[in-house]
């Protein structure tokens, strides 16, 4: 079995009071959990399911785009 790393964005959703994850390289796959650990475990499960479904359908699951980056922008605010 090959182990791969998938850059994942983890952020707090204050309105829904859950942790939300996004996996940009897998068509922005997203899930959530009440704790960081739960959100990340659900994300692992979602990634596995996504890759298995893509393989079953004969689709390329991985985008050819470069790895996502987080950049910091400076913006004037009122």
Overall strand count? 3
Order of helices and strands: EEEH
Which structural class fits the helix and strand makeup?
alpha+beta
Radius of gyration: 15 Å
Gap from first CA to last CA = 53 Å
Q: List the uncertain runs.
A: none
Characterise the protein shown here.
With 78 residues, the chain is of the alpha+beta class. The protein has a domain at 9-56. The chain is built from 1 helix and 3 strands. The protein has one helix at residues 36-57; strands spanning 9-13, 18-23, 29-33. Strands 1-2-3 form a 3-stranded antiparallel sheet, with helices on one face. A hairpin with a 5-residue loop joins strand 2 and strand 3. It starts with 8 loop residues before the first strand and ends in a 21-residue tail after the last helix. The mean pLDDT is 90.
Keywords summarizing the entry:
globular; 3-stranded antiparallel sheet; 78 residues
Summarize the structure.
This protein is α+β, with helices and mostly antiparallel strands and 78 residues long. The protein contains 1 helix and 3 strands. Strand 2 and strand 3 form a beta hairpin.
Topology, element by element:
Layout: E1 9-13, E2 18-23, E3 29-33, H1 36-57
Antiparallel strand pairs: 1-2, 2-3
């Amino acid at each position: 079995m090959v182990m791969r790393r998938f850059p994942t964005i983890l952020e707090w959703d204050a309105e829904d009071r859950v942790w939300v994850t996004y996996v940009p390289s897998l068509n922005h796959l997203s899930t959530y959990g009440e704790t960081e650990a739960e959100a990340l475990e659900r994300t692992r499960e979602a990634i596995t399911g996504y890759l298995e479904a893509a393989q079953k359908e004969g689709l390329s699951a991985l985008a050819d785009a470069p790895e996502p980056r987080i950049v910091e922008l400076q913006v004037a605010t009122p």
